[in-house]
Structure prediction request, 470 residues.
Amino acid sequence: MNHYHSEKKKTLDELINRYECMSQKGTVLIIEETEYLTLIDYYEQECSQERALEVTNFAISTHCKSARLLTTQARLLIDTRNEEMALRQLRRAEALEPSLLEINLLKAEALSKLNHHNEAMSLLGDLKEGRTSKKDDLSKIFLQESRIYEKLESYEQMFYALKEALYQNPTNQAALKQIWLSVELSRKYNESITLHQDLIDQDPYSYLAWFNLGHAYYYLLEYDKAIEAFEFAFLINDKFEFAYRDCAEVCMQLKRYDKALKCYLAVADHFPPDGDLLIHIGECHKHLGKISQAKIVLYRALAMEPQNEEIYFHLGDCYAQEQGWGSAIYFLKKAIKLEGRREDYYSKLAEIYFFIGEYEKARTMFDKSVTIAPEEASYWIAYISFLLNLGEVNQALEVLEMAQDNAVGAELLYAKAACFFLLGERKTGLENLGEALIEDFSTHQLFFKLAPAFSADSDVKAIIHYYKFD
Prediction:
């Protein structure tokens, strides 16, 4: 801490001590208006609204003609749902400084919270007319308007109000922070991209504009552009935690674990790591094959969050990859005990039971996984693969029928084709294989995983060749 900040903190500490002593004695502290405002700001940052309001009462008793103190008190009263009292104080402030914009913005907010929306909107409309050349003022007015639209659940109008607020003042931080919610609620992703590209053209170092742009790209499935936008956001502001985390999340979805790990480690460098962050770091190490490092990080997470079932799951998966079956089963059972509605936990435990020859236990776990998530084709395929490995082809077909009643996807057609080939019903098998190839050619290797004996079959190779060039 440099000398300037050290002195500033010392001054603040002295001011707080003086006020606390005065408060305990029930006397009035005579200090400057700016010092009272400093105290109010301190208590607000400490999340003590009641204490901040108490300070405003003392402050106004000694500075009764301060419009700024009255306005500050009104804002705190609105925050604590005392809108009627806030309006009374705002009328007092308006009599002292009728041209102060904040007074009318707070009046509109209080009126809206009292459900007098038309009156609030009318007030904001009048304010706009008087400030057509004052872009910063107009930006604040449109921002307040957006909050009323949000309360009315008029999300499209909320977006357009925030858009106008940012065109009036591209640096309006409150609008930049709020607009993503309106985009998500109104689904204005394309318009958000255009808006934020315009804002970035005006200010290439607006980290919030880059961040919002990244989210819009993400929801339009343009993942590479989303990652690039998030990267610009945290390169501009290396303390912007959300950009690192959201960038990492997209990378995880794309299985770019190395890149995701770099983002998560950057968060750990700048902020005290929490259990969730450590889980993600451990998961990245696991996917990258660094099992020992993954376990170290996951045990750190477990010390912080001993009831987090996700940690037990990842530890179980780590031990499974090391073929430490006993430990893997222990941790997966622990995960299931804490959270019994996760299909992936049961499926992973089923795989382990299969590897160690505990087939009935595996069957029970596979059955649990598809019962919990019947719409997920991948868990049905895992169950069917297990049955085919045991040579229970007819049982696999029965499970497949249940799967097709609940889930859809080419994977189920490939599984059906495999079953018929294994039963010697080649014609029906080829028909199903053709349907699967038409629906999704890219996953045709699944057929060979389920029925490897037919990898060199001439009819199978011919039909795959035909649809490859169709």
Q: What stands out?
A: Residues 3-25 form the longest helix (23 residues).
